[in-house]
Structures are given as structure tokens and as C-alpha cells.
Design a protein that fits this description.
Number of strands: 10
Low-confidence stretches: none
Structural class: alpha/beta
Shape: globular
Oligomer: single chain
Mean pLDDT: 92
Amino acid sequence: MDQVSFHLVPGEYWGIVGPNGAGKTTLLRLLCGFLKPSSGAVHVAGQRVDSLQPNQLARHLALVPQDSGSELDFTALEVVLMGRFVHNSRWRESPADRQIALEALQAAGARHLADRTFRTLSGGERQRVVLARALAQEPQILLLDEPTANLDPRFQLAAMETVRQAVDANGMAALAALHDLTLAARYCDKLLLLHQGRVVAAGPPETVLQPVILAEVYGVTVTVERHPRLGHLVVLTDSLLPAPSW
């Protein structure tokens, strides 16, 4: 990453977009403190991320990773309850914790999976349970690495709706790495377009999703139109451009 700077505030849903290898996952790992920047710093709630203990940081940030794992020998409800441990001094949930976990499962469209063993779930089902765990953590900032991966169209919409509603209802901030530019335009307030570890454009979808910019970054010609009924931008791929000589 090089000279990446932006400010995420409560009540905003940002999307990180860009081609494979642009640095989307790396940026999320820097924000979580999994990686340390070679220069500069990441701050959350006025404090440097690298100055916080893991349990302190977990009160501010929750991450929905790409790989949710598949061998956890716990029920889906127990996995979601793990998100509550940061709020407890003892590793034992209260009735209130259980209620919050069930509500998070409901919000993620996974309430019916509560008693299923996590390792028996499909990839898409696990993704919804991990999203519920992050919601149950009640963070100030929700970070998501390709939250619609492994999901069919119905649950892609459901996942994006869930995050949008959490941002609007709870005043949290959300930042999601996304490949689908149309989904990003529909649900995100602002976009951060990365290419080769640098910020190419940042701002509202109308500012970032410009055909000339997208052609340069993705190597394809695109048509950007406004959905006639829903009003958000729709990005349609037209054709490949010649590969750059460099």
C-alpha cells in the first residue's frame, strides 16, 4: 500500500473496490492491526491501532473475513456468541448475550441455522453466521472482506441489506471489500478505488464509477447507467482492452 489515506465516520458505508491484487484485503488487514504499515498509522477512536490490546481493539472493530473456516465443532449459535466475549469479563454468556446473538442471526438471515454444527454448513451459510458473529460483537466499525462471496443472488442482496441496515440503525461505520461494482454503487455511500496499492479515486459512486477511470484500472471498457427504477448506478462490462505493455 502506498499513500492510502481516508476517514471513516459513523453512519457511513464505504466500499473498497479494485481488481484482483489491488490491495483490498491488505488494507483491511492493516486496519485490523494484523499488518503494520511501513509508514504512517491507523487510528480508531483517536487511538493508534497498534497501541491497543486485542480485546480493546475488538470493542471498536469487527472483521468478517473471506475464509470463515469450516472445521469449528460448535453450533452456529455458539459461534455467534463468541462475538460477545469482548463484552464479558468471564467466558460465560448471559441471557442478554444469547438474545443479542439470536437477533444477529435473524438479521443475517441465519436464525434457522442456530442449532446446526458450523462445520456442516455450506460456504454461504457459514458466511452468514460469521456476519452474525460480527454484528453480535456490536462494534463501532464493521470490516468485511468480500461479504457476498459464496452467496447466491438472493443472499448477496440480503448480506448487503443487513450491513446497510446496521449502519443506518446503529450508527456504526462499515467498510467492505467488494468485486461487484453495481452492488457497491447500490449500497455504499462512498467508494475507495484501489489499483496496485494506490488510491485511484475516492468519493460517492457517481464520482468513482467513471468509464474512463474504470477502463484504466480494470482494462475493460464499461457502460455506466442509472437503474431506471431503483436509481443507483449499474456498471456493464463491454469489452477487453489491450493489455498494457508494462
